């Protein structure tokens, strides 16, 4: 048996140790910032927000230019070593064992073109920085519930944010990507340049290339009417039943989600919400605030809130609507898409996770989709038609870890009568073929597979494996 991996092999496979050593040795001479296991910077760049998803790559290349991304891909291909990409570690799904990790933290360019309402954003930039830079111009970028998330990681997964129903899928605002495809070529992808690649990068995550910068439309939106209202768990049935009917009538200017929470009795959680079951109603209205206030009146009237924090707010504070924790934690995540969420579904959810239920989930959230998400250009995001998404998070502390997993299956099973096949790329935390089957329709997966063979002929990109196997 050969002890090295030939540079000409058709597909990059599991690396032999000599191949790994060769790749790391070649990278040391080709890139400025190479971090190896044991280095402090390696440790910093491999932190994941879900600590059950630890990543342990052979080496981390902290790229400073598209040329370095290209060099890394070519060296890895020649050595038969796969390549992964990350910017914040918020969406880690693979262990990256035997792979080189391209980390984009240093690609931090950020330009706001206020007059033309667009931004150019480096692949290492988080949404918080874009919002801060755009806010003085009264402009907004369509981020997700947490502004700590990376712009490119979010957009390549479609991006369903707190303005999804009024403004659509965030990836629909992408004008162009600068990307290094798996073959090491530096390319631009837009509606007119490499349009097939442009199609695939909006939903295809890192399966076709490593994005180095993205150009996005900004919307004129200095303020929104929105926030969260927290109810006691004892009101769960009334709140969830009303929400199930209210969402059917809510115009597209309103985006909403509701979450049954069991927050631990500790800081930093606000005192009225700790150590008990609560219901968080999230609402963002992008039309006239007075109309938004009318719209939320029916929900406000259901029960006496523990906290009512809905009002006019600067768009730059949009992260407060969901108040997602950003600290690393051990999490189990599960999700499913629904075609409907009516009063019957609400009752089942209360039985499953309401105040009297035995559940190991810290949060079970239902997001209403629809509205402008259903429209927009054709892209590799495959589930525009879903009406709702359910997303459950359990804390994987050793004493209850097995129960958390079984409990999440119980929830998914009980909601099956209203479910539809599929999952959203940004909320499906598996990897490989299983991930691709869940996230893409067969037609989208096949088209991505064809593009992967064209733009990454050696199959060097770890994220492409799901669509080409
Ligand atoms: C607290 C929290 C709230 C969230 N809220 C939402 C939400 O409201 N809506 C939503 O849609 N998602 C949401 N997400 C999911 C999030 O959008 C995904 O996890 C996303 O992949 C994170 O991207 P990242 O770059 O921050 O993470 P990373 O772990 O650094 O990257 C995750 C993946 O993104 C892709 N990627 C990253 N950089 C590049 C690149 N340069 N080129 C190509 N691919 C790349 C790769 O596939 C990579 O594996 C949330 C996540 C968290 C942790």
UniProtKB/TrEMBL annotation:
GO MF terms held by the record: FAD binding; oxidoreductase activity
InterPro entries: FAD-bd_PCMH (IPR016166), FAD-bd_PCMH-like_sf (IPR036318), FAD-bd_PCMH_sub1 (IPR016167), FAD-bd_PCMH_sub2 (IPR016169), FAD-linked_Oxidoreductase (IPR050416), Oxid_FAD_bind_N (IPR006094), Oxy_OxRdtase_FAD_BS (IPR006093)
Domain FAD-binding PCMH-type: 53-221
Keywords assigned: FAD, Flavoprotein, Oxidoreductase
Needed cofactors: FAD
Family from the record: Belongs to the oxygen-dependent FAD-linked oxidoreductase family.
Name used for this protein in its record: FAD-binding oxidoreductase
Annotated source species: Cellulomonas rhizosphaerae
């Amino acid at each position: 048996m050969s002890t090295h991996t030939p540079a000409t092999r058709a597909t990059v496979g599991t690396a032999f140790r000599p191949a790994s050593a060769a790749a790391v040795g070649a990278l040391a001479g080709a890139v400025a910032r190479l971090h190896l296991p044991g280095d402090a910077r390696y440790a910093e760049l491999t932190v994941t927000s879900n600590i059950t998803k630890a990543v342990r790559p052979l080496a981390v290349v902290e790229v400073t230019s598209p040329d370095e991304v290209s060099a890394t891909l070519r060296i890895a291909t020649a050595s038969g070593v796969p390549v992964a990409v990350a910017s914040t570690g918020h969406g880690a799904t693979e262990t990256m064992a035997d792979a080189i990790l391209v980390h984009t933290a240093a690609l931090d360019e950020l330009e706001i073109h206020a007059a033309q309402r667009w931004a150019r954003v480096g692949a290492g930039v988080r949404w918080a920085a874009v919002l801060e830079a755009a806010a003085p111009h009264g402009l907004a970028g369509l981020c997700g519930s947490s502004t700590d998330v990376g712009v490119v990681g979010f957009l390549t997964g479609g991006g369903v944010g707190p303005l999804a129903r009024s403004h659509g899928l965030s990836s629909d605002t992408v004008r162009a990507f600068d990307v290094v495809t798996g073959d090491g070529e530096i390319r631009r992808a837009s509606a007119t340049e490499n349009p097939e690649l442009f199609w695939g990068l909006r939903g295809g995550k890192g399966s076709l290339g490593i994005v180095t910068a993205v150009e996005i439309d900004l919307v004129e939106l200095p303020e929104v009417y929105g926030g969260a209202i927290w109810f006691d768990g004892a009101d769960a049935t009334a709140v969830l039943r009303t929400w199930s009917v209210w969402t059917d009538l809510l115009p597209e200017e309103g985006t909403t989600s509701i979450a049954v929470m069991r927050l631990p009795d500790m800081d930093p959680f606000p005192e009225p919400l700790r150590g008990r079951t609560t219901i968080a109603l999230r609402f963002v209205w992008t039309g006239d605030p007075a109309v938004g206030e009318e719209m939320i009146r029916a929900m406000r009237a259901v029960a006496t809130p523990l906290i009512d924090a809905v009002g006019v707010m600067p768009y730059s504070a949009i992260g407060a609507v969901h108040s997602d924790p950003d600290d690393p934690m051990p999490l189990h995540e599960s999700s499913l898409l629904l075609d409907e969420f009516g009063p019957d579904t609400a009752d089942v959810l209360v039985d499953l996770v309401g105040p009297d239920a035995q559940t190991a989930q810290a949060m079970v959230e239902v997001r209403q989709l629809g509205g402008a998400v259903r429209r927009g250009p054709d892209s590799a995001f495959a589930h525009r038609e879903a009406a709702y998404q359910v997303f459950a998070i359990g804390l994987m502390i050793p004493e209850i870890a097995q129960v958390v997993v079984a409990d999440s299956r119980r929830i998914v099973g009980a909601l099956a009568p209203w479910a539809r096949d599929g999952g959203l790329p940004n909320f499906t935390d598996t990897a490989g073929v299983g991930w691709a089957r869940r996230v893409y329709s067969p037609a989208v997966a096949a088209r991505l597979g064809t593009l992967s063979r064209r733009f990454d002929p050696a199959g060097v990109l770890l994220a492409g494996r799901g669509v080409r196997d």
